[in-house]
Amino acid sequence: GDFHLDYVRYCKVMNLAPHPSLKLLSSEAPDVNATKSKEDAEEEEPILPLNVRHIVLDTGTCSALFMALKASVVTEITLFSTGLLAEDITELSRVLPKTCVEKLRIEYNPIDTNAEGGDALTCFADLISTKSVLSELSLRGNHLSELHAPSIADALSHSRLNVLNLFDNRLGNDGAAAIAQALRFNMSLKSLSLSKNWIGGDGAHA
């Protein structure tokens, strides 16, 4: 399906106003009743990634967006500084296996662990777990600390990810040690970034 059209439809069903930065302008929206010629079908444009940056997405908008993903063929998503809550990320992790998404970036989206409790410590790990269908995941700049490390390490030990980017977080020596232990059991990861994570000599040798 067409992601933008599906998104607008789900917003209508949920009695939500579509976010202006996520919907097509009416003049740009294709006619859903129009039939494509053989030539048009052969010359379809490639599927573009969904790229949302510096836009705060409330929970209702997230729900409509995630529902639209299930009917789309989008394979790559970037959510950069979008104000996601722990519950939004948890919902996304549940939806992803029903989508075509293979590459996901949730970046510079720190979650207040004091305000959101235990889910804030485990929601990112849900994206890494064996239930995830992702091949590449970037969690740059999400203020992931040694408190997040146990759940991340546990998920990573049996994850199917090929690429994991944890650049610019706060995992520290203990977090690095937990992840190093998990890597002994991981058979799929080919690339891991831990730069700028407050890791000293002890963590580097873990």
UniProtKB/TrEMBL annotation:
This is Uncharacterized protein. InterPro entries: Leu-rich_rpt (IPR001611), LRR-containing_protein_71 (IPR053040), LRR_dom_sf (IPR032675). SUPFAM superfamilies: RNI-like (SSF52047). It comes from Octactis speculum. The lineage of its organism: Eukaryota, Sar, Stramenopiles, Ochrophyta, Dictyochophyceae. Pfam families: LRR_6. It comes from the Eukaryota.
